[in-house]
Request: fold
Amino acid sequence: MTYQEDLETAKKLQPLTNIGTAGHVDHGKTTLIEALTGVWASRYSEELRRGITLKIGYADTAIYKCPKCQPPRSYFTDIMVPDLKCKYCKSELDFQRRISFVDVPGHEMLMAVMLSGAALMDGVIFLIDASQPCPRPQTREHFMALTVIGIRNIVVVQNKIDIVTKERAKESYNEIKDFLNDTWAQDAPIIPVSALHKVNIDVLLWAIEEKIPTPQRDPTKKPLMLVARSFDVNKPGTPIEELRGGVIGGTIVQGRFKIGDEIELRPGRKVKDKHGVHYEELYATITSLKSGKNELKVAYPGGLVGVGTTLDPSLTKSDNLIGNVVGLPGELPPTWDELRIEYHLLERIVGLEELKKVEPIRRNEVLMINIGTAVTLGQVLTTKKDEIEIKLHIPVCAEEKSRVALSRQIGGRWRLIGYGYIS
Reply:
């Protein structure tokens, strides 16, 4: 099978595009994903009890289009039409693509998780609650995070139109336009939606198809994957001979992996010995690849992929390997214990009700650093006008010139204060 034939097969089985959801807490991100996919992305008991997203959630779907009906009514997802026939004219639907949704927390305490999720996104659905004034604090903070990470493909959803008057819906629309004015997203479509009642979902799908394309990627590059989850899939009491190796989940950002590949993970695992604490790279073999419910032989960039490995499952349990980078042995970017960062500070702290000026970075202060899916703390060693040197508490694996998000603890919360690049 040629590469192109292999890729065409993969398109039916694996999402090649990651679309994130972002916005203030409780504006309906997880409910919207359920309307699109039939999956409640907040799978964890504590999330269900509290009604908020605490970790990165995910769900896949396929988009179909009727060849006869006019948009937007021509667009569906597989959950909307299980028989894959148009609701209106009963024509057979044409497959467009599979996409993966990445659900990130909106709560102010979970900004690090949001930034990690944003690193996986090719585009974003930005939700704003029509019943609340815009912008709310995390609306501003999430938008700034998207700006810092470099995401530019966006569709804005004006959610909960079912609970507001016509006058309030218009007022909310104007607030959103004012908020986005003079930004990179000023021309983004604003789609009024009721995620709860699944109103205008076809219009949203049309906008997604128009505004969030699948990126063009080079399959010949050395494969790299960002780890966003890791699991022990064995049930308690499983006999030793039946134990399965650890599973890592995340997004392949370039190249491709196949079953049987030998892989390396950096920075790896934490090791304590007579020399102190350090991190040691891990090596394993890929035993399985899975996208949603589909088993894969080859996995490509985009979407969220589960990778079965020969790793000891004790290493992967409880998300222990989040932030690692996966590649072929000897082909990974360097691992950094110290970073020199060329940085830019924001003018204002955007996650507070009252916008306050960002103070200069100080020598010896501790900052939170996000690079890809890695989150670590670091102590500032030296400061210059546009450059800092920082000693990391946990090392990171990253290319030079990688984008970095910088946060400072303010009022007991980590607040985004700037961004930069490894120099």
Summary: The chain is about 20% helix and 40% strand. Residues 159 and 193 are 5 Å apart (CA to CA). Residues 224-327 form a domain with the Elongation Factor Tu (Ef-tu); domain 3 fold (CATH 2.40.30.10). The longest strand covers residues 276-291.
